[in-house]
Amino acid sequence: MPPAVTTPLLSYLANFTTVLTTFACGRDWYSPLLGCNDCQREYRTWLCSISFTRCTEPSPANPAGFTATPAAPSATGISAARQAGSGQQVLSALVPQATSSTPRNPFLPALDEPYNALLPCLEQCNQVDRACPPFVGFNCPTNEFNGGASYGVGYIDSANGERGLGLTGAAQDRYGNVWCNLI
C-alpha cells in the first residue's frame, strides 16, 4: 500500500494506542470481560471500515435500493419499508458518489467515474465503544443525531440500539446481499 495511505492510518493507530496505554492495561482491568487488546482490535477494525471505501451496486432485484443522500440530521439510515401484507424490504446502505466528490478517506485518490459507496455499519463503531474503557472518550453518532449520514444504521442492532435485533440481524445474507460495510 502507498505510504500516503498507510502513514496517516498508522499515525491514528499509534495515537489511539498511546491514549489507551495511559491506563495500566497489563495490571488493572477496566472490565472483567474485556481488556485493552479487545479495545485495540475493535478500533483497528473500525478504522479500516471507515477508511477504505467499499464500492458495490444495488441488488438486481431492487435497482432503486439506495440510502437517501444527503441524509437529514435526524435520519436513522434504516432503509427498510414495511408494506401491508408483505415482509420487510431491506435496502443496502448505498450512497451514490459523483466523480467530483471527495472520497471518505481523503488520502485515497478520487475515482474517475461515479460509484456507489457502501456505508460502514454503525454497529462496528458501537463495538469499539463497548470494548474500550470510558476514559478513552470514543463516541459514536446516534440514530437521533446524524448517525444515518455516515453509517448504515439498524442492520445488526435495532434502531433503538438493542443488540442483535436489527432488520436483517447481519451485514450480509447467505445470498451475497450486503447491507452495510462490516469488515
TrEMBL record:
Native organism: Hypholoma sublateritium (strain FD-334 SS-4)
A Pfam family recorded for this sequence: Mid1
Domain of life: Eukaryota
Gene Ontology MF: a single term: calcium channel activity
Any one biological process term the GO annotation gives: calcium ion import across plasma membrane
Signal peptide: 1-21
Protein name, UniProt field: FZ domain-containing protein
Keyword annotations: Signal
